[in-house]
Amino acid sequence: MTINTIVNGYSTENQKTKKSKVIFVMGATATGKSKLSVDLAVHFNGEIINSDKIQVYKGLDIVTNKVTNEETRGIPHHLLGIVEDPDQDFSADDFRRHGKDAIESVLSNGKVPIVAGGSNSYVEHLVDDPNFSRRFECCFIWVDVSLPVLHKRAKERVDQMVAAGLLDEVREMFVAGADYGRGIRRAIGLPELEAYFTVEKDSNVDEATKAKILANCIEETKKNTLKLIDSQLGKIRRLREEVGWKLQRVDATAVHEKCGRDAQLAWEQRVLKKSFEIVRAFLN
User: Fold this and answer.
1) Which domain of life does the UniProt lineage start with (predicted)?
2) What is the DSSP string of 138-195?
3) What is the rounded CA–CA span in Å between residue 36 and residue 25?
4) What SS3 state is found at 109?
C-alpha cells in the first residue's frame, strides 16, 4: 500500500511531479518586452533571463538594444553580454543549455524566472526539450502591437539609436570584408552600414555622396528591422496556431500611440493590469 502524506500543502505523491514555474515574455522587436519583464520581476520577485541571440554578446549596446543599468531597476539579468568573442557562434543548443542553467540558478535564489527576448526559435528549442518540459510549467505572455503602429515605432527607434551614438558604436566594430553571417555582426545595423564606412574616410568621395550613402544605409536598417518584425510575428503565430502554445496576448498598441504621461497610463491600464492578472493566476 502506498502512503501518501501531506507536506507544505502538497501530497508527497504530487511533489514528485510538481513542476517549477517559468514565465516567458515574447513579442516582436520594439513592443516593450524588456520593460514588461522588468515590471513583472519587480512585482513578483523575479530575475530575468535574456533570450535574444544577439544580446548575449558583449558590446554594441545601442545596436542590440540592451537595457541600460537604469532600465533594469536593479533586477539581475542573466545571459546578457556574456559572450566576449564577437565572431563566436551562440547556437540554439547553447541557449538551451545556458538558459536551463540560468533558470535553475534563479529558482535556487527563491526567485521567479522570467525569460524575455525576441529569438523565438531559441525559446522554442528550449521549451520543446523533453527534459525541460518534464520539469517546468510555462506561462507565455505575448506583447503585441498593431503592425502599422509597430512599424512606425520601429523606424522611429532606429532614428533614436542613430542620435544616441549608433554610428560611433558600429565604427569601432567595423572591419572591411567582415563575415556578417556569424556572431554579433549578424545584428541589424552592422551589415547595412558597411557601404558607408567603406567610403567614410575616402578622400575621393565627396561629402554629399557620403551623406547620401549614409541615408540609404539608415533606410536599409529600417527596412530590415521591419522584415525582422514580420518574421518574429510569423514565428509567434505558428507557435500559437500550429504548435499549440497557449500564448496570452497583451495588446500594447495604445501605449505606442501616445507619449509622455498618457503613454505611461496606457501602459499601466492596458499592459500591466492584464499581465499582472495572468502571472498572478499562473503562480497561484
Assistant:
1) Eukaryota
2) EEEEEEE--HHHHHHHHHHHHHHHHHHTHHHHHHHH--TT--TTSGGGGSTTTTTTHH
3) 8
4) coil
The whole-number pLDDT of residue 105 equals 98
Name the pairing type of β-strands 136-144 and 112-116: unpaired
The segment(s) of the chain belonging to CATH 1.10.287.890 are 152-222
Model's pTM, two decimal places? 0.91
CA-based nearest residue to 279, from 244, 242, 240, 250: 250
Q: What is the spatial distance between Cα 121 and Cα 54, in angstroms, rounded to a whole number?
A: 13
Closest CA to 265 of 251, 34, 273: 273
d(CA 158, CA 153): 9
Q: Which three cell numbers stand for residue 143?
A: 506583447
- Joined grid coordinates for residue 218: 539608415
Return the amino acid letter for 44: F
- Report how far apart, in Å, the C-alpha atoms of 247 and of each of 23, 25, 160, 257, 278 are: 11, 10, 31, 24, 11
Walk along the chain (284 residues) in steps of 10 and give the mean pLDDT of each run: 36 60 97 98 98 97 96 98 96 97 98 97 97 97 98 97 97 92 95 96 96 98 98 97 97 96 97 98 96
Numbered ranges of CATH 3.40.50.300 in the chain: 19-145+235-283
Q: Tell which residue, 27, 118, 40, has the closest CA to residue 277.
A: 40
Rg over alpha carbons for the chain, rounded to the nearest Å, is: 21
Fold of 152-222: Helix Hairpins (1.10.287)
Helices in the chain by DSSP H: which ranges? 12-15, 33-44, 69-72, 92-108, 120-127, 130-135, 147-164, 166-173, 194-199, 207-238, 253-256, 260-266, 273-283
